[in-house]
Automatic annotation (TrEMBL):
Keywords: Hydrolase, Protease, Thiol protease. This is NlpC/P60 family protein. Gene3D superfamilies: endopeptidase domain like (from Nostoc punctiforme), SH3 Domains. It comes from Mucilaginibacter achroorhodeus. One of its GO terms (biological process) is proteolysis. PROSITE patterns: NLPC_P60.
Length: 253
């Protein structure tokens, strides 16, 4: 088995080996992956953090040795918590702007190492915040299918990102997240931090958000925003109608 690691701020992960294919997720700085298949321009991979599969551009692959890959799995690296953290790439005196949730791999002091390249981290390292503040930091981030950052995020990318910054790794898609945790009986017994899941007319789970309490939910739909929720689902004041039908509630902490 071959392995790789992301040494860019963000790499798009596509459903098919084509620039025109939809982006199903993103790989952030310092995240490792298994290499499944090589093509002329594309590489099929499976991510280490959530076992999500897709295709990335061959030019975006930085090789990672087997022992280094195992070390990262055994000792997860610290994450960046700010919306933007600067990494000074010492070899060419350039700066990479890292999104929240980037992995500071093989960190020594304030220096992260990827292969023979050193990245001096400018800003706080190892600082975190409470779950509410982390979630609120994403407010007004635009909805982006497959996105995982403050500059564009989808509903399950949002819940995954917020929970990961508090030390809990969720699966990537909403339907996968709905299989984790434990069921909450009803909205009345829910509490802050529970995840609510919503289905479509065919009964397929297609959306997820985070309970804030007081009849409110924060979720990514058009943008990350706070809306009202009741036993029927999410009610949009902007549209004057229900937009998502409540299916189930799950608890993880």
């Amino acid at each position: 088995m071959e392995y790789g690691i992301c040494n860019l701020a963000v790499i798009p992960l596509r459903a098919e080996p084509s620039d025109r294919s939809e982006m199903v997720s993103q790989i952030l700085f310092g995240e490792a992956f298994e290499i499944v298949e090589w093509k002329e321009k594309w590489v099929q991979i499976t991510t280490a953090i959530d076992q999500y599969s897709g295709w990335i551009d061959r030019l975006h692959v930085t090789s990672l040795g087997h022992l280094a890959y195992k070390r990262l799995q055994q000792s997860p690296p610290p994450l960046t918590y700010r919306a933007v953290t600067q990494a000074w790439k010492i070899i060419d005196n350039t700066v990479i702007y890292l999104p929240a949730g980037s992995s500071l791999v093989f960190l020594e002091g304030t220096t992260s190492y990827i292969g023979n390249k050193r990245y001096e981290i400018i800003g706080e390292i190892g600082e975190t915040d409470n779950l509410r503040n982390i979630a609120m930091s994403f407010l007004n981030s635009p909805y982006l299918w497959g996105g995982r950052t403050h500059w564009g995020i989808d509903c399950s990318g949002f819940t995954q990102a917020v929970f990961r910054l508090k030390g809990l790794q969720l699966k990537r898609d909403a339907w996968q997240q709905a299989l984790e945790g434990r069921e909450v009986e009803s909205l009345l017994t829910s509490r802050f931090g529970d995840l609510t899941f919503f289905d479509n007319a065919e009964g397929r789970i297609t959306h997820v958000g985070i309970i804030l309490g007081g009849g409110e939910i924060i979720h990514a739909s058009g943008r990350v925003k706070i809306e009202k929720i009741d036993s029927q689902g999410i009610y949009s004041e902007e549209l004057k109608r229900y937009t998502h039908k409540l299916r189930t509630i799950r608890r993880y902490f």
